[in-house]
Design goal:
With 414 residues, this protein is an all-alpha fold. It contains 21 helices and no strands.
Amino acid sequence: MSFLIILVFLITAAAAVPIAHALLVAALVAAATSERVPMDILVQTMVQQVQSFPLIAIPFFMLTGSLMMGGKLGEALISTLSTVLGRYHGGPGQVGVLSSTIFGGVSGSAVADASAIGSLMIPWHKRLGYPAAFSAATLAAAATIDILIPPSIPMILFALSSGASIAALFTAGILPGLLMCAGFMGVCWWVGKKRNFPRETKPWDGKAFAAQFAYASPALLLPALIIVFLRFGIATPTEVSVLSTLFAGLVSAVVYRDLTWSRIHKAVVEAGLSTGVVLLVIMSSAAIGWLLTFDQMPNGIVSWAQANLSQPWLIILMMNLLMLVCGMFIDLPAAVLLLTPVFAPLAKSIGMDMTQLGIMMTVNLAIGLYTPPVGTTLFITSSVAKVKIGETVRELVPFYFVAFLVLLLVSYVP
């Protein structure tokens, strides 16, 4: 049955069927052709998976990101960072990386980051005479930092599938996110200096910077509040998501005074549509996961790995290679929900903590977001920059090196 599920999924995915529907079709075909599968339990499993209280956090974090970055705050944040970094080699690219890192503490969605930051940064880069392909590459890679810096929607999904602590995952994701940020900024500096990219020519103005920093301070304050509330147990992740939405609404209404009914309507619709897609993926993945477990595929993989891979580092390497391949073809939420039930028993068999597995999986699958053929952030930023995918991929090579280095660290240095 497991082979049939994989075969049907690959055929439907190759036919350009949306991933959520491809998963659902594969589950229904496998269940319909097996006399052992009770259909009523399969349906109950799908529905039960989306009745989880922590899932409420997903639409609220998405709503927070739309409210915070859709108005004047996003422009203020980029203006402040460009004042500090725009004069250095690769400065405009570094501004994009740091903006994505800060936005990561607001939204939790790499796709939202690529759309919001890309639409603001790429036109500015072009006005400076920055290479469009490198700009697209920088922002495609930097957008994935968003899912490492808390809050992180993929980490919530991993916790839902594995039983790991959301707060522990959020805390553990900070260091890899900052390492990725520093590495990507280093790439921007090195490439900018080597190829003599254009920079901002305005002289430093301390007073102007102080005013800009004060104006953009709410964007810097919210990620810090989220981490403090979670780290010290002041609120649960779901409560923090609601509080962050209230904070974003109050700041937009009182400080920036750009909150209109049309912005609220647009933000709610976007969050609702995105959440609906995620929930459909969760339900379809739950059906696939239950069928694979029913067919004892995870136990089979554990037994095979223990018999053929004698060292834990080889098992970790195998998991990473499989995740890299899956991440290239499957959307990140679906990949997390599909791979967690398979790899969690394998990780436990070698003594790997679920928090480490969650971070390793998030870092690994994030690389797939800017890797062909189905790289979501890669396609978004290339479309905004109006460049060919191949041009962007060539500029991504040094970013891949940094990402694999961070993946190596989180995999083998707990």
